[in-house]
Amino acid sequence: MKxxxxxLSIILSQNTYAQLPLGNDLVKGKVKLLKIMKDxxxxxxxxxxxxxxxxxxxxxxxxxxxxxxxxxxxxxINFSTGNRKILEKIKKIIDFNSWKYSYKRKINLNExxxxxxxxxxxxxxxYNPVEDYDQEGKHLxxxxxxxxxx
Length: 150
Known about the structure:
Elements: H1 2-13, H2 26-39, E1 44-49, E2 53-58, E3 62-68, E4 74-81, H3 87-93, E5 100-106, E6 112-118, E7 121-127, E8 142-147
């Protein structure tokens, strides 16, 4: 029995990131994301969508933007918040500590961003103290984008 609990704790201590639904069907992926967020103490408020994006909003001032393709498969998941208190919870969900630097991506003539590899996906972390606002008008300071390679 002791070995069972040791194995179970090893399995449960694995990061949640492997469960993020990149590449999955939009409907199934949205359900998975809502479950992951609920399991980590986030309270869902509402959702919004348009032709290529789906947004999930949570009481803890977190929004998740899901970008999908014409086949309704998830291509990008973006976690955004301005709430420093819950930043560590989000980092745990996306397994931020295991991100490995991959390359520098040019944004425009004067700017570039670091792109990280996590498992079979790529990720970008950005800190935007003034520029970005979500649909509810709350300031989004920290953004974590996870996406498939193209």
